[in-house]
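Checked the freezer inventory, then went back to the computational side. Two predictions to log before the end of the day. The first one is the construct we discussed on Monday; recording sequence and tokens without edits.
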Amino acid sequence: MDTSAYLSGLKYLVPEIYLLAVAAVSMFVHLFAKKRGARRAGYVVLAGLIAGVAVLFLSPLSPGEIYSGSLSVDSFALYFKAIFLLSGILTLVLAFRFFGVEKFEAGEMYYLIPFILIGMTAAVSSIDLITAYVAFELFAIPSYVLAGIFKKEQRSAEAGIKYFFLGTLSSGVMLLGMALVFGLTGETNFAAIGKALAGPNDHIALIGMILFFVGLFFKAALAPFHMWAPDVYEGAPTPLVVFLSTAPKAAVFAMLIRLVLTVFPKFEVQWTYIFQIVALITMFWGNIAALGQTNLKRMMAYSSIAHAGYLAIGLAAWGQLAHTAVLFYLVMYLFMNAAAFGLILLVRKSAGFGEEVADLGGLARSSPLAAGCLLVVLLALTGIPPTAGFMGKYFIFAAAVEKGLYWLSAAGALNSVISLFYYFRIGRAIYMEEPRPGIRFEPSVPVLAVLVAAAAVLLVFGIFPSLLTPLAAALTLIK
């Protein structure tokens, strides 16, 4: 058997091989370092991910399909891989602060992150059913472990168990959908399946598509498959929530984009309606449920659900403008979410962190810089200019209008108004309320660095969105 083609293809997988090496080195440091092995393992991974950005952009793109049509390492995949690395870097910076205060540090967490990144980078390059499923499980299974890794907290274990059981159920449903599609076509390559499917009148193929989507909807916390998100986000360690709420969501949307354009293009009318309904339910469910929350992590969990709904509008109104909007919004949402959850790490309460909205009272006086940055983040989350959150929503709603989905664009705008009420509660606590007894605000250079970076990115790309939109527009899969 001639293996030269397979060996030559390894050069296109340099980022994945590199991440595997980073994970291995980190694991050995954790196991054999005599002092502070866990923290040193974290430093290894952080340095590795920062260097990994250069490795990623220096790696060649594949000229087409590689490994018998299993993968396509194109510029579209490269964009999402950069998002994953950035999410991992922000998570690790916040994790050092979190575990430094909690006095408990699970070193295995640090090398689980590169393993999850490998799964996600493979998933966004997958153009084959088998490869896509294996890659999906490769980042899903370690995610369940990550959610329940904080052994000091019972609710963390509960979060991991809930995430695992619901995740495996959704994975099984997705696998059933894949089996139906394969049974109809006898093909596993995405493009070959797209050509072989009969068309929109094939009801079995339509059922297969819906089941396939269900598994992905779960991972993206799209209603009505979002039930795990509030409990998991509340129970998991705060920095890891930044990772779990952004990187997997980006991976899922990348997979959905490939699926609708290559596997199910003949079912455009059907999946357009599906995304419209899912977007509408997700936005209203997330925002209305967030109104009654007093716990910051649960509130931001429902906010995350609502933002998944905004992204689903882009899929419902798919086209060149929607493509640009979704890719732009995913990057901005990463910074918005990292800052929103990072805020909690400035608030000390007893031996841990304050997670209630009321715990933020007086933050503006104790840390004006953090409060100013958070104001920018809250404006971006709501969708108010001159932030990148406004521009992201503007592009998505404009894409809906372009496709004649005026009612969906109006629903998105209405949901932005609803979200203003609970985001304003956070701003009111920061600027207008008195500090609560037993609460103190501790400055943290890593957390403040994340907040400042997030605010700067949201302002710069809000005022100058053209710094990113041409790149996002160029990475299209639309032929």
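The second is the one RB wanted added to the comparison set:
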Amino acid sequence: MNRIDLNADLGESFGAWRMGDDAGVMPWITSANIACGFHAGGPVTMRATIDLCARHGVAIGAHPSLPDLQGFGRREMKITPDEVHAQTLYQLGALHALARAAGTQLHHVKPHGALYNMAARDRALADAIATAVRDFDPLLILVGLAGSALVEAGRDAGLTIQREGFCDRRYCADGSLTPRSEPGAVIEDIDAAVAQAVSIAIRGEASTRDGEMVRVEADTLCVHGDRANAAVFAERLRRALGDAGVQIVAAARPA
């Protein structure tokens, strides 16, 4: 039986500003990536999201970002590997403290936004993230774009890795994601996004923006918690994968 993890980027509200439908998405996923305060979130939001994960039995992951609250972490910036290493450790430490106080632990790490995409192609930045994860806890799972430099860096650092596929992002021919600044980068139609997710989970392939097929070997699929009707999408996705014979389960954390 095919197995896949469903992850979602959550805890991305900030103060009085609300982002996403965390409570609606949570029952349908198996892993959550919680914003650590650099692009969104904050101590109270982080703690509330950890508690929500614990109630639903959802694996808790850190979602470190570039320091870019105003741009929601989606703007690239010039940054050194040493800065990325230190900032990743800083954010992991913050979420770990709140998780420990709640009687639970971190399961995985998935970079956010621009940092994720930069690390997908820049091996030096990928190594900085992987090294920070290993330095913090070598048993944490590192999540990266399938076929990317971050996956390679995680393997070389001795970490357990998860290759990530995207349900509602359009792929380029080289397996990278179409930049959000370009038309059609996000698959808005729920049926089309669900169909892409099932194709990745069952056949290991997705359609590019040019209509060609690209190989996407994924262990986990991303459900964007900030998309319109996120909870409806997550429920339909989970049911469609189940109907296709796919087992939905979080990766086991190494012992």
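For RB: Helices lie at 22-25, 43-56, 81-101, 113-121, 123-136, 149-156, 190-203, 230-243. The first strand starts at residue 3 and ends at 10. Let me know if you want it refolded.
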